[in-house]
Records
---
Amino acid sequence: MKFNPAPSLVMHLDLNSCFASIEQQANPNLRGKPVAVAAYVSPRGCILAASVEAKKMGVKTGLRVRDGLALCPQLIVLPSDSDKYRFVHSRLRQLLSFYTPSVVPKSIDEFILDFKGTQYSNLFDLSRIIKTKIKQEVGDWLTVSIGLGPSRFMAKVASNLKKPDGLEEINIHNYEAVYSRLTLPDLHGINTRLTARLNAGEIYTVTDFYNAPIARLRSVFHSIASYYWYLRLRGYEIDDVDFGRKSFGNMYSLPIPLSTPEELSPTLHKLVAKTTYRLRGDGYHARGFYMGLLFNDHSFWHHHYSLPRFLFHENDVYKIFYRLLLRAPSGKKVINLAISCFDLRSDNVVQLDLFNTVKKQLSVSSAMDNINRKYGSFVISSAGMSGTDSLVPDRIGFGNVDHLTDI
Amino acid sequence: MKVDSPVSVISSFNHHLKVVSPRKVLFGGREYYVTKIGLHHTHRIGRTLYHVFSVAANHTFLKLSLNTDNLFWSLEDISDEV
């Protein structure tokens, strides 16, 4: 099969150094300086985003603050400000929706725009207009890298070719030249482990990957993924699938490592409150519950539990998670606590119980959610959460953006 | 530096551009004249809508928040250029 000859009508737009650029946009005195946004500004805090200037000094996402400062002593480290980032995301979304009805946010800083069936045929000119509009209407310091291709994957790869402020296309005429410049981990979805597997199948470069017959790919992947990669590398669309909501979860890195269930209980309760609030808000109940603990010796423990009935009430869900917590290895110091609810069902269907408890719980949950929605999060909360005001602050995940609503 | 303190602000509204801008801030016995608006964003706490202006007054950065329920201004953050 040859490369897809279709025109490049898919655009991938990536806001460069998202959080750090937005901070530089907000504070003009930070522009042109190395800036990093971190989950915590303390030495052990994790850097979430580095500005273009900081990246030039080797600072990148995932580093500890102390390592960032070692690489770049003049680095300005800021805490994250979720409201600001959500606002910019919403403004970008509004602006992009003017050009096509098909705008899919892939994360807080990435959008996919599909122009099939629209009036636009040359997306290069339109991309330049969009870049200018972003500077005029969202922020003059913000730059985006835009990739164009016949599929989402090609557009994504193209957007990574030049950063910051790039505008690149991958099509039937240049794909061979582009592939010859890329390494396997440059392809979105190919990590070090998969690279090793591909190498074992005598695939060392992206060109090898493209030229590999499907039978060889099958021997590497042992699954339908081989066929998906075969199509993906030829620019055919296989990634425009909406898998729907599968789970709700929250995670928290503890500022001080804690070990006993009693010590961890308030944090756990707050994580459960946040998760179940979102679960109910999106109209779901869950009967699968997962907990993961990372310890300070870097070992990991996780466990899940499934129930025959669906839960939605904070206290019921908390009891399940607390039972899971009791099964965790004792005495070890926890540095990261993650929970999630899966196996979801719409709240349209509710199994009532003999003593009418479910109906009462629905009313109480609904009333509490309404109060919190009106007056602010955790204005009313369970007693088990007392003293947790400063714990589990508002954060933005890198992936799912379903919870981001228009402002 | 986090402040979260009530503050006096003189603002202007340009009906041609439909833009509201804080112009002068009085805080801690000092006057700050806004030289550049970096970002104007909004957020809600409960139902209350807040307009937040991140501004520069020469080498000083100020983050001002307007509570649209009572139209009171507060200074959330102030810092000098590093």
---
Amino acid sequence: MSTFLGMPTTAPRGVGNLRGDEPFPAAARKALGNDQLRRNLGHATATIRAKSGAVIGELPDWQELRAAGSALKAATMARLPELLVELEEKVTAAGGVVHWAADANEANAIVTDLVRQTGQRRVIKVKSMATQEIGLNEALEAAGIEPVETDLAELIVQLGHDKPSHILVPAIHRNRAEIREIFLREMPGVDPALTDEPVILAGAARRYLRETFLSTPVAVSGANFAVAETGTLVVLESEGNGRMCLTLPETLITVMGIEKLVPTWQDLEVFLQLLPRASTGERMNPYTSMWTGVTPGDGPQNFHLVLLDNGRTAVLADEVGRQALHCIRCSACLNVCPVYERTGGHAYGSVYPGPIGAVLSPQLTGVEDNASLPYASSLCGACFDACPVKIDIPSILVHLRNEHVRARKRPTPESIAMAAAAYTMDHPRLYTAAQHAAKLSKYAGRRLPPPLNGWTASRDAPKPPPETFRDWWAKR
Amino acid sequence: MRIALFVTCLADTMFPAAAKATVQLLERLGHEVVFPPGQTCCGQMHINTGYQREALPLIRRHVRTFAPYDVVVAPSGSCVGSVRHQHAMVARSAGDEGLAARAEDVAGRTYELSELLVDVLGVEDVGAYYPHRVTYHPTCHSLRMIRVGDKPQRLLRQVRGLELVELPAADQCCGFGGTFALKNADTSTAMLADKMRHVLDTGAEVCTAGDSSCLMHIGGGLSRLDAGVRTVHLAEILAATEEL
């Protein structure tokens, strides 16, 4: 990015699947009306919460681990540029090829070209948020290349022509009856007698995928971590599909956000304890794959690493907001969020839903492009308590709301009312007069005028009391 | 002890019963309560809606008003949360280090009611009498921002005649969230529906909490349904005696 003369004054904003079609309140309204979705989400998030809570409770040093994870991420971000260069050197020395992508379009073009050079028309994919973010599947399809998702939930989403609604459990909005219908409709060669028993559904996916694993020599993955000092890439998954994709093909292309680095191998010790317990509620991650460049005669013989910025440098520049880059994509904040539990992930528009999405998406795109997301929270703080790397999501939300308000060019009815309220409250005599006006108000009970009608749509307004506290106090 | 009451704008204007109860309770326990007259609003609504610049004079006013007092109490976990976790932050972002330091000083002497009673005054039995079946909703800011823990329940368990019933999924937000209740009214209502269901499941006559704001939301929903359960601030229960 540091080209002379042409050097940009601000970092580029993120493009790709980071913006929704409509503001959060409108999208949420639709989702709230979907009873099946509400039930599926309520059941799934409660199950994960209980499982995760139990295994976290087993660790006496969970709070110390969180603090260590937070400190490691902060230290990494403080010297991200030099660590990235170190990673590039180590990956290259180990036989890999490193590509730098300023945004989603560049990353898609790099990956598409790399696949084309292999002459293949199909790639197998490991579940990856980075490739969902950049819309890689759509880009590959446009180039005549078929991407096949091999994570079970991601496959359900792909076969259902759907979008992921959760970072870790992308088909969380579907129940098994719906999954059976999708498989029957879309899965080539599926047994028409398919039932909705989980083991039968998984078996159907396994038969379909096994053939694809064995016949596809190019894979695309994301990465959970990259170790700068060794050039090692790390993928955590729980189905074994990732291990297949990372070991069987001849060519492996990994797309990774630039924030996924850890400086040293030893740092993984902390994150490999934090991530499984916070995400799937497992004590130890089932399949942890690590590879360093190319090993002759073993595994993929061509390895490409695409380092993705797509707005991350802009996030890094924000002193308050940059901690959103510490995220290890565990989804704990989604699972505890009372808003997410009721609206689901699609309402957030971006591929990053829930509390972390509400702070990450607006920063990647610039807050003006995702202006409703920082307000999609009651600031209840459950996300902050659940986050394994202690990202203070409520404070970032408040910060982004302030950024959004300050960036507005013209006054709005809200900004005028807020300014008037602040002025009134800074003048006790005006404040007292306003209190008395509220007391005399004919508006109470079941219907308030706009903008307060949102309140009385579902709640009665309190009846103003006969005297305020300070009136009572003055008479004592 | 001489205690300054930070009444909060909402209790002052809409829910004076909670504020009066705070005064009566502390006086009954033998303390002197003073009401610094310059106080209005802590600015939390402005801060949480994105108007930090507008909140700055309110923070300045709050800090100036309460600086002379050794102990400040508010019948609200949320407003105490704003004083403790937001005032200095907003002052600092505005480049006013002096105000930030003074705000931190005031915040260090500001307590939510149950904290004041249990931690500072060292009482759990405040001599109250309240012969009702009651469930307690721990508000998010009292639970996760200022971490009052189980102090409110410890106080409630000592109230004579009171039957305390546990609220299922108590730690889930009721859906109020300040201007969230207006900006995302549908989602807020969906959260409220679940909270009301849990309150009704307890069979309690009264739902109590340490924040008038959340109670206004829960109570407004229960009232709309004519559900036959009322919301009462924790201070009012603790202030109630057989004599009243």
